[in-house]
Write a structure and sequence with these properties.
Aspartate Aminotransferase, domain 2; 15 strands; globular; alpha/beta; Aspartate Aminotransferase, domain 1; 7-stranded mixed sheet; 13 helices
Length: 381
Amino acid sequence: MIERDIAALRARRTTKWHKFAPDVLPAWVADMDFGVAPPIAAALARLAEHEEYGYADRAGVLEAAFARRMASRFGWQVDPADTVTLGDLVQASFSSVMAFSEPGDGILLQLPSYPPFMGAIQDTGRRLIGNPMRDDGTRWTLDLPTTVDPRTRMMIFCHPQNPTGRAFTRAELETVVAFAVQHDLILVSDEIHADIVYSGSTHIPLASLSAEAAARTITITSATKSFNIPALRCAVMHFGTPDLKARFQKRVPSRLLGSPSVTGVDATVAAWDEGQPWLDEMLAYLQGNRDWLAAFVQEALPGVALRLPEATYLGWLDCRGLEPPGSAGQFWLDNARVGLNFGETFGPDYTGFARLNFATPRPVLREIVGRMADLVRQRPA
């Protein structure tokens, strides 16, 4: 793995490195500051070499690769026929909400939450029913409500959870399924971070728990986070039963979703079939970053708390102990010249939080949090 320096990273034409002013170090959007697995690079090179820019002949290829990946990585046997391919998981979340609920219906969502999930609910005229997670002093835990609004139709469930980094246990997942059965909810399980789980934790696909779970679960996933290819636009929706898929397709015409790009398909197939050695190396590096970051926050950032992420490459920083004058994200941006995700975008009660992306070369990570530590040391007591 090549560790690029800041100048090389700034030379990339990516949103991550060009959202903020040039003197700001970015650690926000979930985009890794690394390259890609050699099989992905080879697949893209083949497309360029043969100038394959016409209408692509890839029918069924991505669906079959998804089934192979789920079996080899998670021991989950799926039928490729139960999948729908598309370009983006945000599309998947919006279309699922529109297919299985009506305007005015309630959608349950754990908070803090990946912001587009809130958009999928509110922008389509549904009602966001926030279900705050609970910090037990060690990690963020589920705290499902005892009752739900009678017009609640669905739960969007992020698993592993973004931004808290939780990899939920089998017992927790069984509780979610039992809750959904009790209240007759459709479950949309976002499992895009499923590959990025650290030692001591395991990812269990929600729909794999039981036939009962599968019958009400739409799994949405992609290789984009774990293999660093978000610009290639490729995603998969898996429906736990053919009936669930038929219900979706009755409400959402396939032409409305479009299709993934040929670059996305070929890169994803290469990643899932041949990229695991690269990902294993990347996971070891990310776990090293995570462990170093957790120790640094505890030692050098008094007033900031970080519950050790079990998954993802995202750290959810509780900055309330610093008593920032307003948004914690704005505080770090204005005073340390560090660009994090602002906590309030993950829910209105999280102004005192910020999300830090630690998927960056370690010298860059040291510079980012070093700036934060310098600011904390210089603040008047």
